Amino acid sequence: MRTQVGIVGAGPAGLLLSHLLHLRGIDSVVLESRSREYCESRVRAGVLEQGTVDVLNDSGVGERMRREGLPHHGIELRYGGAGHRIAFEKLVPGRAITVYGQQEVVKDLIAARLAAGGKIIFDVPDVGLHDLTGSPYLTFQDQTLECDVIAGCDGFHGVSRPSIPEGVLSIFERDYPFAWLGVLARVRPSAEELIYARGDRGFALHSMRSPEISRFYLQVPPDEPLENWPDERIWAELKARLETVPGFTLATGPILEKGVTPMRSFVAEPMQYGRLYLAGDAAHIVPPTGAKGLNLAVADVRALTAALGHWYSTGETGPLDDYSRTCLRRVWRAQHFSWWMTTLLHPFESDDAYGGRLQTSYLDYVTSSEAAATTLAENYVGMPW
Ligand SMILES: Cc1cc2nc3c(=O)[nH]c(=O)nc-3n(C[C@H](O)[C@H](O)[C@H](O)COP(=O)(O)OP(=O)(O)OC[C@H]3O[C@@H](n4cnc5c(N)ncnc54)[C@H](O)[C@@H]3O)c2cc1C
Questions:
Q1: CATH code of the domain occupying 5-73+96-172+264-340
Q2: Distance between CA atoms of 319 and 17, rounded to whole angstroms?
Q3: Distance 188 CA to ligand 1 centre (A)
Q4: Do the beta carbons of residue 13 and residue 293 sit within 8 Å?
Q5: pLDDT of residue 352
């Protein structure tokens, strides 16, 4: 088999890259270790930046998102017994976020690729990457896929990044002394917008996926066993952390899914080696507090598509050579924002009274100064391309 771009991973990065390349007349094949059903039902991100929404709309895969997605024009910061709205419409006019599940984006992209005759090969867990600085090719099962370049879009635990020889990449990382317990529940959202709540019991996030499905997160200790969290305890803790302002009652319902996600910041530089280009979680991870992971994956493949398009049409390698540098500017802005939101909203240690006072002081500043609130809003809806 032969293609122009061999793509490893059918997450948002790999699928969108394949779709955008197709629109430029560039052929690709996507190799995915898991089944189509698994990819389409994996519940993860749900907050799309303005730029992500624009890319999906402009490339013709935004029809269902426009119908079912929930545009939000603000978020609430809740602490000290009061809620404070960060109003995007006032602070960053014309820019907003859209709540639309990552698995819905994945479904839309798979449908678009298959309708256009695109090739996605699911259930191949044994992908190998070869000759990355010469004539690259991928192997899987007993087959070989020759290609001009390889896009490593296989997430943090994939095979692409480890295929780069030791010593080439510089790794920058930070672990946090807590994790998030994520909960999906069949219950109408108790508020129209996301609520980021900081309190002495820990952080909680009230979010949603649709008018009938809510998404919640609770700060928990790292490596927290899920068995410690029966449904009744989850609701009791969510109520304790969210029902902290007068008149707010949390609606409860059947829990559909729950899981513990570690919090980590990670960047591998550069995001390229020979003819292998890393995109999305394969190259960088952010704690989910800033809702940036999926959006960074979209930004990476947008840049990679432009660079590959330029190379195929002119033979010039300039933008491809600059791919890593181009992406890392945005990656590091998102790294900082995600670290900052995490640091602002999570008690790090139960007895750290000084750290708590610093957080409250900064929250007071963000919610009373238009300049500070604009910084948060501008980063949250996503920096312009
Ligand atoms: C609980 C949670 C909540 C989140 N919330 C948000 C949010 O609100 N907003 C946001 O922007 N981001 C959020 N994120 C992050 C976001 O989900 C990721 O950043 C995003 O999935 C990255 O997309 P990707 O395509 O780079 O990687 P992935 O989605 O990880 O896709 C990689 C694909 O490669 C496949 N693969 C792996 N190894 C191989 C292999 N060896 N061979 C072939 N295929 C392979 C995987 O099966 C997968 O399909 C969240 C993440 C989690 C876990």
A1: 3.50.50.60
A2: 16
A3: 26
A4: no
A5: 85
